[in-house]
Amino acid sequence: MKKTTDFRILSAAAALASLLGFSMLAAAASAEIPLKRAKDWGSARGWGHVTLRLRVTGEAVVGVRGARVSVDTAQGQSVTNLGSDCSEPLPQRQVPVVVNVPLGRGRVTVSQKPSAANRYAMVLRVSDPQPGAGPYEIQIRFGDVDEAPGSTNYDPHANWQGSGFRRPQSWLGLPGKPLSEQGRQNLSASSAGKSLFVFNGYVDDDTILCLRGNHVSTAAPSRRLPKIRSWGLSRAMPVTRRPRNLRVSGTPRGVRILEYPSYRNEYTTVLFIPKASRAVLAGIRLQWE
Fold first, then answer.
1. What would the DSSP string read from start to end of 231-256?
2. C-alpha to C-alpha distance for 215 and 177, rounded to whole angstroms
3. Fewer CB near the terminus (10 Å): N or C of the chain?
């Protein structure tokens, strides 16, 4: 009961502090996280970003104002910084802002967006109910959001739907489902040192596989999703750069990369498996460096 009460008090304090100014948020039993200059620091492309890379256990409230980041740990261990950076500070004026979470096992919610009322502070809440600590990458992009699409709420169980990347019209709005952990295999890199994704399952319709970070989801127009035998990732796909030498092979004929990862689709790889006259066993192997 005490933890619940403390969390409510802390949440209220964080929200109030963001309204009154970031300095109060930093003073409300919080730790400040340094932001490094990103490789694209100062690039004039119409939009900028603040990218938070954190390890979270339990519940945390994160506040961003300018180039300052403050974290309040409501439940669990203290949040660990894993190399957060920015291309420029969060503007102290009204600009379009979007949030996307290409890496994270829990839920990230926008409590407040920057406005004159809160002195242009962004307040996020990270909920990680699973045991142990989970890594997160939270991208806050601002400016020309047509070049940096995103979403204000992230749910890994809807991850395939894009929550922040452009999708081909042919599979826009299809039902999606994350691959079950039950059939997941532990993979190691190939003998050539390349990272791998493998998939084995019966398909009887055009099927989409979406890979982003360590999340994999599937969709089909008829809603007849594949019957999965096994799948595995040797490591998470890059979420801040394009993977090198991305190649797909396998059966049935016609398996191909429908959309290559880039900053425009938040580094998501979209694979297409064509339907056959009857259910066939698909065996797919994707590799990259």
1. EEESSPPPSSSPPSS-EEEEESTT-E
2. 11
3. N
The span from the CA of 75 to the CA of 89, in Å, is: 28
pLDDT band for position 239 (50/70/90)? confident
The per-type count for the chain, helices as H runs and strands as E runs, is 2, 22
Q: Could you give the CA distance from residue 8 to residue 224 in angstroms, rounded to a whole number? A: 43
Tokens of 33: 């996280």
Contact call for residues 141 and 90 (beta carbons, < 8 A): no
Determine contact, residues 200/206, Cβ cutoff 8 Å: no
Neighbours of 66 (CB within 10 A): 17
Give CA torsion, residues 219, 161, 286, 261, to 10 deg.
150
Q: What pLDDT is recorded for position 50?
A: 92
Sort strands 215-219 and 269-273 into parallel, antiparallel or unpaired: unpaired
- For residue 149, what are its two tokens? 């699409």
- Does residue 143 contact residue 43 with C-beta atoms inside 8 Å? no
Tell me the average pLDDT across 175-188. Answer: 74
